[in-house]
């Protein structure tokens, strides 16, 4: 089937953009201080919290990378396997959520500092900012790609539109506005995908025709990937989710433990719907458009669907990309404000000053993210890189705070450094040998270093806190 641009789809994007901007402006007027801006005044109920968790986690990584690229390149089963790390991660966060709220910190680095000392906070801040800027960058380009494919708009112009929307919505109202736009986007995406799955299968001639038009390897359990290669795709998302500052901030923003629990159950159920739907749509696209870029598999179907269905799917995909981008941008700016500016540059900064600096950092990091994406050839490549830098560098040390009382500052900091150094060595210096993602190497190294260094250096008479062991 030949792809033809449909400029009328721009109306759906335009309508979505207007609604999001209006909501952002309205909610921005309710921001009364820095806590309101960063944690929405700890006022999120289960409905909005579920939506913002869902929309933040599912963005361009799923729409243009993740499940989409996996289904197109390797088949339906490897793509469906990508759902498993998410479900496992949500379940673990469900257990940890009360502890996260108890810490009462704005950032993950603040939690790490409470256990490992100030050095860990500094290292964590750098890791978070670098990883999150990378994640924001591929949200921007992801929107550029889908607008180019569907409407004929140039990738460059589409990326600029994505950058402006992401920066504006994050800057104007912080989490107070982002959470509301996230919730709308989340439910729009669920509805759009539910409608699209049966429609696109029918357009493709039925499931039998879909299977007949894909390579035989696409129906195998691994799609031609070795076990270690497959693990290289599964581990990054799991370890990012388990340590994702965005999720921690949102859980800390809930009205209470009851709201957080209800929201996470809803998030889990929604992901059971969304992930398979994305996989099925992208897999069907492989049978219809075998020569397109893998990352565009899901969006290509908007041009084969009835206009109204394609328009809803396009608006839903754009909403997820933009809401994920502004969430990660807000989170990274929070680190700059509270971990660096507030700790080292202006320790006496007023609440109003912290709020204004957060907005300034949102714009600065957004521009940096826009420039960064030019150095990565595909969405999937920067996605795996950013996920692993974060997941290997922070998550083992962070989970140890909640689950291993014996862990000490030396062990935690050593794990963080080992995870990042291993990732950079594997990806940049060694150029990813055997086409194996660095997560397969970096995550085990970080865990081993955490355990071994802690056991070797722990004094049996200490509690392992930052005051008893020098970092």
From TrEMBL:
Gene3D superfamilies: Sodium/glucose cotransporter. The keyword Cell division does not apply. It comes from the Bacteria. Pfam families: SSF. The chain crosses the membrane at residues 12-32, 44-63, 75-97, 123-147, 153-175, 187-207, 227-244, 265-284, 296-322, 360-378, 384-403, 410-430, 436-456. Coiled coil: none annotated. InterPro entries: Na/Glc_symporter_sf, Na/solute_symporter, Sodium:Solute_Symporter. Keywords: Membrane, Transmembrane, Transmembrane helix, Transport. It is found in: Membrane. It is a multi-pass membrane protein. Signal peptide: none annotated. Belongs to the sodium:solute symporter (SSF) (TC 2.A.21) family. This is Sodium:solute symporter.
